[in-house]
Amino acid sequence: MTVFNPPTSSDPHGKEVFIRCRNVSKSYRKGKTIVTPLEALDLDVGRGEFLALMGPSGSGKTTLLNLIAGIDSPTTGELWVDKQNLASLKRGQLTAWRAKHCGYIFQLYHLVPILTAFENVELPLLLDRSLSRKERHSKVAAALDLVGLANRADHRPTELSGGQEQRVAIARAIVTNPGLLVADEPTGDLDRKSATQVLDLLREFSSEYRKTIVMVTHDAVAANAAQRTLHLEKGQLVEQVQITTSEPTEV
Amino acid sequence: MITKNTLFNVTTFILVSLFLTACGKQEESTNAGLQNNGAEETATLIRLATVPSSAISVGQARKTAHPGQKIAVSGQIGGTRSPIAEEYASFVITDSVILFCNEIGDEGCETPWDACCEDADKLAEHRASVLFLNDNGQPLNLNMKQQPGLSELDYVTVTGIVAPGSTPDNLIIHANGLYTEPTKL
Amino acid sequence: MLPISYAIRNLLRDPGRLLQKVGGAGIVVFLVFAAGAFNQGMHRILSASGSPQNVILLGAGSEESVERSEVPIQAETLAAAGIQDITTRLGVSAVSGEVHYMAEVIFPTGHKAQALLRGVTPTAFEVHRSVRILKGKYPKPGEVLVGKLAHHNLGVSAEMLSPGQTIKFEGQSFTVAGIFTAPGTVMESELWFDRNDLMTLTQREQLSCVVVRLESPESYASADLFSKQRLDLELSAIRESDYYAKLSAFYAPIRTMTWLTAALIAAGAIFGGLNMQYAAFASRIRELATLQAIGYSRPAIYLSLVEESLLATLLGTLLAVAMVLIFLEGQTLNFSMGVFRLTLSGEIALAGLLTGLLLGIIGSITPAIRCLGTSLPSALRS
């Protein structure tokens, strides 16, 4: 087995590599058969890059997303995010890593219904004991402001539209200022207008704040918002599309 | 005063007596009243090696005994719910003609030595109280279940005198001799 | 750590379910309180009724029941002379020959009730040292001294047994001369008569028992020896504390039944609660997974779920305490031996609190483990 170094080198395009997958496989037992949604996958993502993952259902894109987000661990291979090989972390360590380094955006927002928008965004900050209440509140206010929902802080999820819920979820993902954002079909449940707002936000985080974003999507329009789109089929990367412009795509 | 020392000496004495009895070296009787060091009382309880020939039943004694009379009486320990006293050398002796609770087929009876089913008058005629005194004429402090290891329903013979307070209705024997029969089957 | 407010608000998610949980836990804890108070009350009154310093001389063969026992009247003076180490006060030996009798008394209103009657002489106060006359005086012939709680046993108001009132027994009227207390004992439920009155009216020539108070519990052997030396009196010497301990043992099956009932209901409640809790947690599997994705550890989430469950059961415990204070505390219960009060003692309160805690913890352990056992990627998709 090849041993890789942390991704300090640059990729061919001159960008600093932030995510490096080498020979990453994931398989699990389903009844009596072993399913392998990802097999010997290699992938580099640069710091601040906005990457879209496309592919048919069952192609392994969510599996890859979960591995990158530290939700799941690869069966074999190495998966470096920034300076950390996630493949070497145990469950508890992965949990702690996620809290600091990764924001997750879900298709169905996954907001806690009994908490207000403000409290939902505050949830990840409660894990950091070093923060004072005042510091937490100013961070939450800033995050909500960034997604344009400062005036909805006291609303419960049921009192918000889908687009607003997703923007609260985005605020929750960025409030700890992680280097990595992962999004699983973030526009899959939204109308076009709301989808555009969400995609604009993601582009902004990538370009303005140098957040590395990996987004799974079925939607070619959404994928267009990304700088690069990868297609997965049967656990393998089959095509790479490089989008050179950093301007928002017309939708 | 009855002291712990006294009890110790009584115990020692009984142990010695038991040993001698067991060895069969005693023909008639042993009187080994041990003197307490400067003590006020001497324990007197003589273990008899054989049954005195003059021994009579409790029933007979009830009819003939009068206070002050020398007497030897044979019977079984029982006839009441708790026939052996707790801390004094005293027990209740009853003739075997009395129907004990274990003889009426009550297997689960907790007090098989009691005679609760016997006719009260008959029981009264065949029952007497035995008490061993110390040299001061006071009841001897001794747990007879521990030393000499008496149990309810044991066959015993006691020798002594009929107590001054004894009446035809209530026979009390102030005993000094005790013979315990090997278990009868 | 998840804030406690998260657990609190989760509770309020479904008020119906919350009500069920709080009510269920409340009923179980209430039952524990009730069973505990009942058992402790009964045990306390029986153990307080017997003093280790007192010996009861009962008729041989009636060692279990003083009411059935018959003791020759001369046993009282013979015992006073024949038993060593009897307590004396102002020259009076603590020997009390008594008649215990259960019979019907009739009130002026026509109300009839079974009463525990005791025929005594003034020496009864030398033997039963906890007895104090609260109101009125010691009864003369034709009068009766009434235990403080006797009215409960007889089903009448306290006024109907206050000094000056009359009751009828065996066709004769008796005036209440006074009220006595004997805290925590069965005596408080009794009616005390002049012994001669009671013996005459019931045509008894024998006593029920002779109670002797000794200098120390160790002097019992002397009373025991007396009973063996006076076979003609047909006596059995029993420590008063042993007598009541035996009575207490007699009631043990009843006490076991109360605990068993409480335990069975608690078991049912736990199984019901487990189901409900599982349903409550299962409907939140995705939310719990999201919290993990955000960075909350499983133990932290697990703790929050247990917290949530505990909050409900402790609310139930509070409810139970309220119910006890309203419905149980201070209530008197009758049983054949007398009347006892139900009180929420420290021990019982602790038992109830522990029950509440256990219900909360046991009720949430397995549901929480099952709900958090799902793998994170699939829980996020559920």
From TrEMBL, chain A:
One of its GO terms (molecular function) is transmembrane transporter activity. Pfam families: ABC_tran. SMART domains: AAA. The keyword Nucleotide-binding applies. Signal peptide: none annotated. One of its GO terms (cellular component) is plasma membrane. Keywords: ATP-binding, Nucleotide-binding, Transport. Transmembrane segments: none annotated. Residues 19-251 form the ABC transporter domain. InterPro entries: AAA+_ATPase (IPR003593), ABC_transporter-like_ATP-bd (IPR003439), ABC_transpr_LolD-like (IPR015854), MacB-like_ATP-bd (IPR017911), P-loop_NTPase (IPR027417). Coiled coil: none annotated. The keyword NAD does not apply. Belongs to the ABC transporter superfamily. Macrolide exporter (TC 3.A.1.122) family. This is ABC transporter ATP-binding protein. It comes from Cerasicoccus arenae.
From TrEMBL, chain B:
Keywords: Signal. Residues 1-22 form the signal peptide. This is Lipoprotein.
TrEMBL record, chain C:
It holds the Pfam family MacB_PCD. This is ABC transporter substrate-binding protein. Residues 261-374 form the ABC3 transporter permease C-terminal domain. Residues 25-223 form the MacB-like periplasmic core domain. It is found in: Cell membrane. The chain crosses the membrane at residues 18-38, 257-280, 301-328, 348-372. One of its GO terms (cellular component) is plasma membrane. Keywords: Cell membrane, Membrane, Transmembrane, Transmembrane helix. It comes from the Bacteria. It comes from Cerasicoccus arenae.
